[in-house]
Amino acid sequence: VFTIGDELFDIFSLEFNASQDYLAVAGRRFLESKGPAAQKSTQGANLDDPMIAESYLVNVPEIEAIQSRSLLPIRQLMDKGNTYGQITSLSVASLRKFVATVGRDKYIRIWDYADGKFKQTVNTWYESDLNDVSIHPSGTQLAVGANEGIRIFFVLEEELCLAIDFSGKACMAVEYSHGGHWLAAGFHNQIFLIDPNTFENKFVLGPHRLQVTRLSWTPNDYFLVSSCRGGTAFVWTSKFEIYTAEAQNLAINEHSDAEADKTKVFQNNKYEFARQTVPFNGALYDDEYDLTVVICNDRIMEVLYEKATKQYLQYKFEEPIIPSCLLLCKESQVLFIGTNVGVVRAFLWPLPPSRLAETYLQYHDFKIHSKEISGLSLSTDGNYVISSSEDGTIAFLKTTEIWESYGAAAGNPLSPEKKRKLRKELGAGGIRAKVHETMDALSMTYQHAIRDKLAKISKLKDERKIAEERAIENEKERMKKLEKEKMELKASHVKALDEEHNNYRKMQEQYDSECRKSETEKARLIAEHNKMLEELDEKHKKEQRIAFDLNNEKIEMLEKQKAEFRAEIDVIQKNFKELLENFEGTYKSKFDDQEVRQTDMQNKLKVEGIKFEETLKKCEQEYEKEIENIKKSFYTELKVAKNNNDNLQKAVKNSEKEMK
Fold first, then answer.
1. DSSP characters for 426-451?
2. How far, in Å, CA of 362 to CA of 372, rounded?
3. Does the reported pTM lie above 0.85?
4. How far is it, in rounded angstroms, from Cα 391 to Cα 371?
5. How many whole angstroms separate alpha carbon 650 and alpha carbon 645?
6. What percent of the chain stands above pLDDT 70?
7. Mean per-residue pLDDT, 203-232
8. What pLDDT, on the 0 to 100 scale, is given for residue 582?
9. Residue 330's closest CA among 442, 465, 449?
């Protein structure tokens, strides 16, 4: 029995999908919330009040795994929580609420789960098979391991931009450090340490026996853990320069030239655990307790200490469960193991040693997915464990409820008394705990560490309680002062409002009076303006009549001048005609006289015997001279007449212009 939605009034429809993995539930609730108590009963409820329908999608395997409603509340799946292909890897940005996934459908997807929503922002297809993905803590870079190598992208708002392509051998594992200053990538049996700022390959670690499949960093980035298919796991210190060939040769020269010493020097710089016949599915290291956890493909979980040289605990999963991935949540002190059957198994951390495992090793299973879990990661705020599976889903498991879940879990419940006894026996057993960065000096025992932590927690709780009480008292005093000030302000506001109302009334009356004065002045100005317009109009009419009279007089005068000019033109033309006739008559008479004279002279020449040519030449010269004189006088008189005619035409044109 479980509850869906505290405010639902009733449920009116249920429907399974074909595989019966999900249950669709449809119910009704009142439009205005009446509270959970009012919703659970029809007494006092008005069924005529407006209602709205709501639908929920419930994960059935998750319900089957829950044995108490206090463990994990039922909630509807986040919008767009399902993908279309099998998810093979998952990564979460530690500074932004981004989840990056890759799947067998060759798609790279980025999901934004800020503000309680789950929205897909990037959906990019890649041409090669995708093996692993890691997103930078800032959410600005994305590294993808594929069969062709590794590609690093810049994450834009809705797309990916390729930054660099490291092509070559297959890459099965990529992982950014928590600080974002390193990118570890497993190329075949080696590990490349890449600078995300310059994309330069700084160091090369290895080799492993076979392909590197898993990489993980400790929360403080002091150590890098790698595991491979060949059954070896290494814990590397973050001082990667000690693994270079130059540093190894220098260290060997300081010790001895023997081959055994070379191996010893190299082993002092890393921790190694090997089960060479069994592939490893994952490994992690907790430097606080010096514990290394390795999960194997033969259903074995190995826990080691003393720099992974001694066995601390060996745990075997029951059939058919095979561990597929693991995650350590330091804040909640829980170790999460993902399995091939879709179950997340949570262990209290640190795990008890083998001699106490039968009594104190407690776990709880959460059936979240229907297929193998491919990735586990913490959310940005650390309150959720985000899991991905080959069934194509992403789930959120609230970590703050894990501790409560152990009290109600099936099997051997871990009561508070057993918890205290477990801490006591772990402390008495001398389990070595927190280790310095140099890994060569112990700080305190596990018992002292737990005791100090509990004391700090108790002190913080007391301080928080006292602070809350003080805050409540201060808030009450502040509310009383605010109420008193509110009443005083209310009284002063009433008085001020009355004064403002009176002032407004006076201002309104003054404004009305000024408006009336303005209207009177406006009417007076309009009358004066109209009178002025009439006077100007009358004056303009008089001036126009005078102008018309003057114009008529000018026209008459011009007509008179025009007639006089025409008379003068007629006289000039008549004189010119007479002159021309006189000229023609004179010229004709002279010509006749000249001809008679020439005839006489010829006769005389014939008679007197004078040479005809000389006489003729002389006559012709005289004739031409006379003709020139006559022409000059004629042209002079003609030019004078033409000038008089031009002047007369100009005068006529000027008269016509003035008339116009």
1. HHHTT-B--B-TTSSSB--BHHHHHH
2. 23
3. no
4. 5
5. 9
6. 78
7. 90
8. 80
9. 449
- At residue 611, the pLDDT reads 61
Backbone φ/ψ region at 232: left (φ over 0), alpha (ψ -120 to 50), beta: beta
Q: Give the lowest-confidence range in 14-28, 36-50, 337-351.
A: 36-50
Band of pLDDT at residue 42, cut at 50, 70 and 90: very low
Residue identified by tokens 């009336």 is 516
Listed ranges 26-40, 301-315, 422-436; the one with the highest mean pLDDT = 301-315
Contact 374, 88 (CB under 8 A): yes
Q: Positive or negative CA dihedral for 641, 642, 647, 651? A: positive
Segment (H or E) for 560: helix 446-608
Helix (H) or strand (E) holding 651, with range, is helix 612-659
Which tokens go with 595? 């001809």
Closest CA to 215 of 330, 273, 132: 132
Q: Quick one: pLDDT at residue 253?
A: 55
Q: Tell me the C-alpha distance between 238 and 216, whole Å.
A: 12
Q: Which residues of 464-498 are buried (b: 16+ CB within 10 A; e: fewer)?
A: eeeeeeeeeeeeeeeeeeeeeeeeeeeeeeeeeee
Give φ, ψ of 424 to 5 degrees: -65, -45
Round the CA-based radius of gyration of the chain to a whole number and report it.
Answer: 58
Angle at 139 between CA 377 and CA 94, to 5 degrees: 40
Q: Hunting for tokens 């990916």 — which residue is that?
A: 160
**Residue 433: band (very low, low, confident or very high) from pLDDT cuts 50, 70, 90:** very low
- 109-128 burial, b at 16+ Cβ within 10 Å, e below that, comes to bbbbbeeeebebebeeebee
Quick one: 616 exposed, middle or buried, by C-beta within 10 A (0-12, 13-18, 19+)? middle
Rounded CA separation 13/26 (Å): 5
Mean pLDDT of 71-86: 44
